[in-house]
Amino acid sequence: MKKLVLLHLILTLFSCQQNNQEMTYPTTQKIPVTDTYFDTEVVDNYRWLEDDRSEETEKWVERQNEATFSFLDQIPFRNQLKNRLEQIWNYEKVSAPFQEGDYTYFYKNDGLQNQYVVYRQKGQEAAEVFLDPNTFEEDGTTSLSGLSFSKSGNIAAYSISEGGSDWRKIIVLDAVQNTILEDTLADIKFSGIQWRLDEGFFYSSYDKPDGSELSEMTDQHKLYYHKLGTSQSDDVLIFGGTPEQKHRYVGASVTEDGRYLVISGSKTTSGNVSFLKDLSVPNSPLIPMDEDYSTDSYLLEAEGDQLYIVTNKNAPNQKLVTTSTNRPQEKYWKDFIPETEQVLSPSSGGGFFFAKYMIDAITKVYQYDKQGNNREEIELPGVGTAVGFNGKKEVDILYYSFTNYHSPGVIYSYDPKTQMSKKYWSPNIDFNPDDYTSTQVFYTSNDGTKVPMIITHKKGIEYNGKNPTILYGYGGFNISLQPSFSITNAVWMEQGGVYAVPNLRGGGEYGKKWHQAGTQLRKQNVFDDFIAAAEYLISEKITNPEYLAIRGGSNGGLLVGATMTQRPELAKVALAAVGVLDMLRYHKFTSGAGWSYDYGTSEDSPEMFAYLKGYSPVHNVRSATRYPATLITTGDHDDRVVPAHSFKFVAELQDKQQGENPVLIRIETNAGHGAGTPVSKTIEQYADIFGFTLYNMGFKVLPETLAKKPKG
Fold it and tell me: Among 3.30.360.10, 3.30.1370.10, 3.30.450.20, 3.40.50.1820, what is the CATH number of 28-86+431-696?
């Protein structure tokens, strides 16, 4: 007992030293490697951390996690946050139903299940479990990543991810009997499952790398056809594998009647070419449809020999065009739903088309018939984001969900003939959205550009400059941040926290021009937009630098890294998740070279190299600088943005940080880029993230009481 008391005293003293003085971090050995870019030498002291299979890297990860959790363990309200996250998370969640064969399927989570379960029912019979991913692995780290049914609905194929990896396996089932039909397909990556009737399906993958499957470059994507009842080794290569067909991303769509295959090939994450293949004719040729890599197009639907294609060719905000399978080339495309001033994201179902528009990141939806007639705007439940309005042609009822930053998602059924909506399902959650408010503002960035931002918090909070605030951003890859509810953000706002989301350049909120304004030699616009958002929150006395946290993941992790190295005094806390942080070498790993449309690469030109080096977070950490309290999060199985980015960045920060603000890295084991993360791990992560944030803002107790009794 005396030993336990002494140990507790030592840990307490160590915790006090951590909180009030400069921290002592685990030693990270420097082994310099010098690269030369256009006659400029760049030293990389931490290249060795790129080897994810080495014993030295494994031991480094262990030491870093020990240091991180010794700090997190001292946060007095960390368990309160975890308990509250569990309480609010513990409600039944269901998806919209969908029909396959004789069954209606839906996804459901009872509350705290690590993974959603797939249920089905026939007619009025009781629902039964069809697939339960919680049984795949005891700790929930193997997840269901895709489910696709054949034309009849009698056969299904589903893909799984193990440990969060982007590499997948595909299992084929007799859906009626729910029994496995054949051997599992392996080594599949960045792929859908596109059925050709009940005969087989198309999928995409890369050759398995010789070195580490988590970090080695995967550069040539290929499309295969798997015929049921045959071995994967006999699968037919349909596209890829030759110099003229070399693409980093290859995808496919099969028309609902199973006759036509449309193949998409991309060299980067933006822009693609497409080809049409007639599956009813043996050895039919690939007919080029769109050969312009600078634009994007994809098949939405087919009706007999009529194709409906979404494209931004001569339409930065996208349009829907139509053409015949007899003349599929781009020069024959005709406008069906023309481009407007708003960004179009169309869908189809029930014999109709639905034009979903973003207007300052808010959804509006219009319905069109097959003749192209606009049947007017669909009345939505409020101001926010609507997702859905899609299904098979023959269905009578469609579904959509509606949400915003403070309203949990509600599912509505929609009759496309009467254009009437009915509430189908609403959550019974321990959170009252009426107590919260969202406001959209427009602020001015560094170059005069107006940027929208939605600010959400409890009603009635005082703008006194002392509100704990998370500023979240992304700004890249044409991705739009639209209002949506988050259980974790609900807990943050319960504490009196403010949640602010700007729609930065680089995203897709205002079409292709908005996206391109934040790419390559214009990437600094994204950081300037984010910095200006922080300055707006401070100038309006919503918060101040001592109560501001900046947060983002993946490309958003780059955003946080660049912002904190350019303006270290701007925020008290920096939260960078699975970030792209070494901009000189990002293209050397997995499929990273495909991100060059947004970033450019250090090998493109002297100008591009200098620009990337000028903002690359790993290369811009300065000695004797007071950086924000920083918590970097990543997964040891992240094979999209390899964890070496985060490892090298935290090593630089720990070496050069001045002052008492801690710089820590939380490395989740058996986890990847984020998709499929078990609920239990997610709850623990956010208890740590919010606990770290509030504790470093100076809170010794939670800003608002969490003394709520659990349901039941």
Answer: 3.40.50.1820
